[in-house]
Sequence to fold (162 residues):
Amino acid sequence: MIIGFIGLGIMGRPIAENLIKAGYKLIVYDQFAKFDDLVSMGAERAVSNKEAASGSEIIITVLPNSLQVKETILGIGGVVEGLKKGSIVIDMSSIAQDLSNEVILALKKKNAAFLDVQVSGGKAGAIHGTLSMFVKGDKNHYTKVRPILEKTASHIEFIDRK
Fold:
């Protein structure tokens, strides 16, 4: 399974590192942060959000705010443009509910799914893989990605979004 990983800041970088150490193949991208260290660990470098998505089945975003999530997923050259049918986008950013609903609709048009994951535990939790996660979405999609989440979190709760 290939994971597109976008957002390599304070939280994203250690989450990505833990996934690489767990044996997952990552395609990484961040518009602002350098990530040569992750490439040297075995990650593949993407040159855009679209490229990270087009080579992946699962796309994880860890971004600072709603505006960046909207630009990254829905903007020109964004994740939506590169999605494959059946892809699952996991957003670990803190975003407004209205944006979450907008993303869900855009992904449905591409036959892709969305999981909204609220994360707590800070940088230390991300480094040690002991984050707490609260996952909203479809149970089948959650079940598929749970093994990935378990490599980064010690506590995961699922909330069925129907």
The radius of gyration is 14 Å.
